[in-house]
Structure formats: structure tokens, C-alpha cells
Amino acid sequence: MKNYTRLEVAARIDHAALKPETTADDLRRDAEMCIRERVASLCVRPCDVALAERLLRGSGVGVSCVLSFPHGADVSEVKAHQARRAVDDGAAEIDMVMNIGRFLSGDCNYVSDDIRAVVLAARSAGAKVKVIQESGLLSAEQIAAACELSLAAGADFVKTSTGFGKGGATPEIIAVMLRAVGGKMGVKASGGIRDWATATGYLRQGVDRLGVGATEAVLAGCELLPDSA
How far is CA 14 from the centre of its chain? Predict the structure, then answer.
């Protein structure tokens, strides 16, 4: 069983600063923490991308941005515009919410075109796209189908959840995602990751990225468990 260092786990974390009440001062504190801990990215709301980019410039920590968050219900043209604006403001990665209602309605062509519109807008500036499924609303078969649809539409990652919907990441959901698209695209576990054991458990399963709001608490846990060796 692989043991992880604090730095190894931090390098897989997208720190989430997405609460409605997040202030500019909150964002500054989060950026300082992200730089100190050397996380992968600071994931912010669209209105915060430009400030996050200025705060993180030259640090090696990236800026990721949620899109059509948390419901995924914006029309595709709006999503594509949001993606272009986010990358213009400095986002290197886009975490878009899949249109879950259309997916559950069986309109897979709409969902595929919706994802592809964002991928094309983001790729023009070299940004990567993660597709958030809100997997807690889906069966195992639907999770796998959504993963395959996201892959076919050109996305770079699939992601379990927004953290604002029903449920979050679970080992069972991650296992389904990895069986469906592991090795073909990245898999991001998000929602409910609040301690070191949970974070490292998902990494051992094979996820590529972790969406975490309680980053300092998660990383502090490395001092208490054998993984810190």
C-alpha cells in the first residue's frame, strides 16, 4: 500500500473557494494557503478568476473555475461564453456542470453538444475541461454512460459532484468511473473529502485530482497517520 507525503497529496488538490458568501478577503487567504501548501489549483467562481490569477501569478498554483455552477442548466451558448471569459481572465482549467436534467431525459446528443461547446471554447486557449456529473443522482450504469459521453465530447476529466447537490464522492462511484474511462481521461473525486484517510483512499483507488474545501484540515491529518512516513 502506497504511503503519501503531504506534498504528494497537496499536488492533487483543487482547493474549492465556492461558497456564495466567499469574500475577496477570503479569496486572498485561500490563495496564500494554496501557495504555502503547493496545491494543484484554486477553484473559484467565475467572478473571482481575475483576482485569483493576480494573487497566484508566478506561484505555480493554477486557477480553475466552475462553470454553470451548481446546476448545469445554462444554455450551451452561455456556457461557451463563460468558458471563453474564464480563460481570458486566467483560468487554466474549467469545471463545468453537466446538464443533468437533459441527461436523465435521455437527450444525450444535447448533453454531448453542450460539453463539446465548452471544450472547444476552452481549448482555443489551452485550458482543460472537467465535467461534473452530480453522480449522487445517477445509477452506476448512468455514471458510466456519462463518463463515456464526456470522453467522446473531448473533455479531459470527469468529476463526481459539485459538493452542493445530493451526495458526493464514494469509493463505489469512483470505481465505476475508473472502470469506464480510467487511463483515457482524468478522474476527480469531489464532495465529502474532509480528512487525510479519505483523500489518500481515493488516490490509492487511482483518481488524478481531489476537489477539497477543507484543504488545511485534510493535509494536517498526514501528521497523525502512517501515510506521513
Answer: 7
Among 65, 57, 15, smallest CA distance to 216 is for: 15
The total of other beta-carbon atoms located within 10 Å of residue 30's CB is 25
Length of the chain counted residue by residue: 229
Query: Which residues are designated catalytic?
Result: 95, 159, 188
> Alpha-carbon distance 98 to 165, whole Å?
13
The DSSP secondary structure of 82-123, one letter per residue, reads HHHHHHHHT-SEEEEEP-HHHHHTT-HHHHHHHHHHHHHHHH
Measure the CA dihedral 51/52/53/58, to 10°: 120
CB 83 within 8 A of CB 121: yes
Paired sense of beta strands 128-132 and 157-159, if any:
parallel
Tens of each residue's pLDDT in the chain, 229 residues: 889 999 999 999 999 999 999 999 999 999 999 999 999 999 999 999 999 999 999 999 999 999 999 999 999 999 999 999 999 999 999 999 999 999 999 999 999 999 999 999 999 889 999 999 999 999 999 999 999 999 999 999 999 999 888 889 999 999 999 999 999 999 999 999 999 999 999 999 999 999 999 999 999 998 665 544 3
Which domains are delineated in the chain?
6-131+191-223 (3.20.20.70)
CA–CA gap between residue 60 and residue 81 (Å, rounded):
26
